[in-house]
Design goal:
The structure holds three protein chains of three kinds. Chain A is α/β, with parallel strands linked by helices. Chain A is built from eleven helices and 14 strands. Chain A has helices at residues 45-52, 74-79, 95-105, 111-121, 137-149, 167-182, 194-200, 218-224, 239-247, 269-283, 297-306, and strands at residues 8-17, 20-30, 33-38, 60-65, 68-69, 80-83, 155-159, 186-190, 203-208, 211-216, 230-236, 252-258, 261-266, 287-292. Chain A has a six-stranded mixed beta sheet, sandwiched between helices. In chain A, helix 3 (95-105) packs across helix 4 (111-121). The longest helix of chain A is centred in the middle third of the chain and has 16 residues, at 167-182. By secondary structure, chain B is mostly helical. In chain B, 71% of the residues lie in helices and 0% in strands. Chain C is α/β, with parallel strands linked by helices. The relative contact order of chain C is 0.13. The chains are: A alpha/beta, B mainly alpha, C alpha/beta. The B-C interface holds B 3-4, 24-28, 30-35, 37-38, 41-42, 45, 54-56, 59, 126-127, 130-132, 134-142, 311 and C 50, 52, 72-73, 75-76, 78, 80, 82, 84-91, 95, 99-100, 102-107, 110, 114, 117, 121, 131, 147, 151-152, 180, 183-185.
Chain lengths: 308, 311, 321
């Protein structure tokens, strides 16, 4: 399934509802590993996930899962597990009943065993026989995930999976997704919690008003933003002396001394990183801290969605 | 914006001057009124909401239309009286017109039921549907305060609907005659019964519809529930009597709000109920008692509902 | 006297569910993060503090007022922002917040003025005259915050204030909360699942688990620096590690970072020189800090509280498992 053909691929895909263009000419291809799907509310993330799950038809372009068109394709349903954002479980069902139902819908040979396994994976055994209506938000998330995992799909799509989970449940889920990705699954999840995306995802896709604004490793994306000067925070044994030494470097175009540290504005990222240790040694200054101030996913994201 | 500490007035002395004014957060050091103020505010808010005020244009359509329809007979009578007076007519019209103080309530009772069905669901339903109860109860307002203020506001809204047309009727009858003091004297005896009937009607119609609204936040169900409560008992009573049991049918009418109010109306104005009504042998005071029970009972049930509801 | 004082607070529902179990903690003014698992008792605690739920046993006082007897007085001085939706769609923000101000006891003129001010402070401008039903999630959260602030409370209780917000919205809401806590001088308790938020704006942390106190301390105690220095280079991490090991430093590799154990100032210059000699592009030199989630990673429900962040193993490996 995940050979030379990409596990998930969008090729010039658009989706509109009357005049509202939810997804606008988006193309990308993903393989095994974890990718984070980011974007402001209403950017089109849920639409993309539902198209990949074969539940929504693209208005233009091709949505392919394992090389096959996704729309209304039962083969694709078997390969993909979708965890939607909205409530998708009847409150009166028990957790176990819901997961078994999902197993039966997938025509698994032994639904009960598969369900038990999925429930164990998400650590929900203790409450599996209670009605879902009595579950907390985090438990409901986990039962949805169990339902999506029951047929052991190689591809997992999750829409805001950490919604409502407390720290412990989140850590557990992160561990689970990581091990599944390491085992070869392709996982795409959307989230607003950037700290988590930063630590869990191998790469990101940023959607803004229906268009794909950026794709890949976020640090690489940041490097590509040459129109935004990088800034570094430096703490040293002699900030002023170091600042003077930096100003002699062509890669640096500004320094700020304040609050007990040095802020360096850099015209060229690569040039600066290669020079900094050498310059500090030459000036006889010890470096205690060097940190890019806007190298985080938060900053990258903010730049991408605010830039136009 | 400057922080909370700096504040400068206009510079004194000659020469160019500029000032920055502190528009940061200010503490509130003024009066804080207690529960009474909160209850009154909620009461007024409920009264206004009943007529769609403060809730956008669409909310006003139903109450305004129903209000106008309720006033229409009175306005029509007054218009006719004006014409009559112009052409020198006497009091024969007054005596023969079918819409009078004692018949008005019955005439508009359907309109009042519709008003209750349209507006009561909004008052309790909205707060429950949208979770606003949590915000009310997180303030210095007791649950019972909330319930009573809302019900009170609605009952007064219905009272206005019942009473205003009668006031217009009174003014028309009294001012459009040649001998005003005499007309006032003649009609004065009706004031008491009119007010009493309006109060009972407002209390009963208002109370019962608010109870339904308290238990059914979903608007469509509440509307249907209210209409059902006001029409079905009559129908059932009619069927029972038709099947031959007039005693049970008679007692059943004490459960029907509209029949109760017909009974109190007859009692207060000392009129005979028409031949449709087969329960003429029940003492009039029974109807007043039934109305009282209905009003107090509704309030009690609503209080209990909100004392226990989770937010 | 502490802002909030809680002693052996227990709340039981029937005989089976114990939401709060002998909880004892003092909460000081500041921006306090209240963290805990689902079902750990956060919402129950907030309701008890508001005087809306009577405790089964134990005591609690807010602003020196007993929750059992002075509930009404407490609610006059406290602003509450619930987690769930609680706004009517057909009223405008101005109308709704002034209505709430009236219910909070403000006279009519003051209610109107404070409403206008507070809506400006939370960042709602022309949209305040439109019906709330048409607002985005971010705007609705601001209205919820405004109604909690309008009567100038001494204490704000915020339940998951960034719920449903996208990253920009969360950023703005956290900014706002920080401003309220520091500039406006109002004490705040934020109940949240998201530790990153508390790390960002909080000054104290109260962690509860299974209805009991897990840990309560100023934030800086939790996110202290460890004894590990992380060095990141854009390429050549392996070579750097070898060279530093040859220099006599205790080394570990963690993804892109080379971790160096620090016991004194020695490693800094060794690192600098190694990087300069090897001509590697240096991206980062940073002392690793503990993260709040370590607290939850290590603790199990019912276990005694985790001790304070003290001396740690020389090369603590952090990051994804």
């Amino acid at each position: 399934m995940t050979g030379p053909t990409a596990a998930l691929a969008l090729d010039r895909v658009s989706r509109w509802y009357g005049n509202v263009v939810a997804v606008n000419d988006v193309s990308f291809a993903l393989g095994p590993g974890i990718t984070g799907l980011l974007g402001p509310n209403g950017a089109g993330k849920t639409t993309i996930l539902h198209m990949l799950a074969g539940l929504l038809r693209p208005s233009a372009g091709r949505v392919a899962v394992g090389g096959q068109v996704a729309w209304r394709n039962p083969a694709v349903y078997r390969e993909v597990g979708l965890v939607p954002e909205r409530e998708a479980v009847h409150a009166f069902l028990t957790g176990r009943a819901f997961v078994e139902m999902a197993a039966r819908l997938q025509r698994l040979p032994d639904p009960r065993a598969a369900a038990a396994k999925a429930i164990a994976t998400v650590d929900l055994e203790a409450v599996a026989d209670r009605a879902v209506g009595t579950y907390s938000k985090g438990m409901r998330q986990r039962v949805k995930i169990a339902g999506a995992l029951v047929h052991e799909p190689p591809i997992l799509l999750l829409d805001e999976p950490f919604n409502g989970m407390d720290p412990r449940q989140r850590l557990h889920m992160i561990g689970l997704l990581r091990s599944m990705a390491d085992a070869g699954r392709a996982i795409l999840f959307s989230s607003h919690i950037l700290e988590e995306v930063e630590r869990l995802a191998d790469g990101i896709l940023v959607i803004h008003a229906g268009r794909l604004a950026a794709a890949g490793d976020f640090r690489e994306i940041r490097r590509l933003m040459t129109d935004r000067p990088h800034t570094f925070t430096v703490r040293s044994s002699d900030d002023r002396r170091l600042a003077a030494a930096f100003m002699a470097q062509p890669a640096v175009f500004g320094t700020d001394l304040r609050d007990g540290h040095l802020t360096v504005r850099v015209a060229e990222f690569r040039g600066f990183t290669q020079a900094v240790a050498r310059v500090a040694r030459g000036a006889g200054v010890s470096l205690f801290e060097v940190a890019p101030t806007d190298d985080s996913l938060e900053s990258v994201f903010a730049y991408l969605v605010n830039r136009r | 914006m400057s922080g909370p500490t700096s504040a400068s007035g206009v510079a004194a002395g000659g020469g160019p001057a500029g000032s920055i004014y502190d528009i940061g957060y200010r503490r509130y050091e003024g009066t804080r009124l207690g529960r009474g103020h909160a209850i009154r505010s909620l009461f007024v808010h409920s009264l206004r909401s009943s007529y769609g005020l403060g809730r956008g244009g669409r909310a006003k359509i139903a109450p305004i239309i129903l209000g106008i329809l309720a006033l229409l007979p009175a306005v029509a009578i007054v218009a006719a009286l004006t014409l009559f007076a112009q052409f020198g007519g006497g009091s024969e019209f007054n005596d023969r017109v079918p819409i009078r103080y004692d018949t008005y309530a019955g005439t508009i009772s359907t309109l009042v039921v519709l008003f209750c069905a349209a507006q009561a669901p909004e008052l309790f339903g909205r707060d429950q549907r949208h979770g606003v109860l949590a915000l009310y109860f997180a303030r210095a307002l007791r649950r019972s305060d909330y319930t009573l203020a809302r019900i009170g506001g609605f009952m007064v809204a219905v009272l206005i609907l019942e009473l205003l047309p009668q006031v217009i009727l009174f003014l028309g009858r009294v001012l459009l005659t040649t001998d005003i003091p005499k007309a006032i004297g003649d009609d004065l005896k009706f004031v008491g019964p009119v007010v009493a009937q309006s109060v009972l009607a407002a209390g009963l119609f208002g109370g019962v519809s608010m109870v339904v609204s308290a238990f059914t936040p979903r608007r469509a169900y509440a509307v249907a529930g209210i209409i059902a409560l006001f029409t079905i008992p009559n129908v059932v009573a009619g069927i029972v009597v038709g099947l031959g049991s007039s005693t049970i049918g008679t007692w059943l009418t004490l459960v029907s709000p509209t029949s109760i109010l017909d009974g109190t109306n007859a009692f207060l104005f000392d009129t005979r109920l028409g031949s449709d009504f087969f329960f003429v042998d029940l003492p009039g005071i029974a109807f007043v008692a039934a109305a009282g029970v209905g009003i107090v009972g509704s309030i009690a049930i609503a209080l209990r509902r909100f004392a226990r509801i989770a937010t | 006297m502490a802002l909030i004082s809680i002693r052996n607070l227990t709340k039981r529902y029937g005989s089976s569910v114990t939401a709060l179990d002998e909880l004892s903690v003092d909460i000081e003014p500041g921006i306090v993060g209240l963290v805990g698992s689902n079902g750990a008792g956060k919402s129950t605690l907030l309701k008890v503090l508001l005087g809306l739920l009577a405790p089964t046993s134990g005591d609690a006082s807010v602003l020196d007022l007993d929750v059992r007897t002075r509930g009404t007085d407490i609610r006059q001085r406290v602003g509450y922002m619930p987690e769930h939706d609680c706004l009517p769609p057909d009223a405008s923000a101005t109308d709704f917040v002034s209505h709430m101000a009236l219910i909070s006891g403000l006279p009519r003129t003051a209610a109107r003025e404070r409403t206008a001010e507070v809506l400006r402070h939370v960042g709602l401008y022309e949209e305040r005259y439109r019906a709330i039903g048409g607002y985005s999630t971010g705007m609705k959260q601001r209205v919820k915050l405004a109604q909690a602030l309008v009567h100038d409370p001494r204490l704000l209780l915020l339940d998951e204030p960034t719920n449903g917000l996208d990253p920009t919205g969360r950023d703005e809401m956290l900014e706002l909360i920080h401003r309220i806590g520091s500039e406006f001088g109002i004490a705040i308790i934020v109940a949240t699942h998201l530790l990153g938020e508390i790390e960002r704006v909080g000054s104290h942390l109260v962690a509860i688990e299974g209805g009991r106190l897990l840990r309560s301390a100023p934030l800086h105690e939790f996110v202290e620096q460890t004894g590990t220095l992380a060095v990141e280079v854009d390429e050549g991490a392996g070579i750097l590690a070898e060279r530093l090991a040859a220099d006599g430093l205790a080394i570990a590799l963690d993804g892109r970072a080379v971790l160096v154990d620090i016991s004194d100032e020695r490693p800094y210059d060794l690192v600098r020189d190694a990087v300069a000699d090897l001509g590697l592009p240096l991206v980062r030199i940073e002392r690793r800090r503990h993260r709040l989630e370590d607290l939850f990673r290590d603790a199990t429900p019912g276990a005694p509280p985790v001790p304070a962040a003290g001396p740690v193993d020389p090369v603590a490996t952090e990051g994804p498992p």
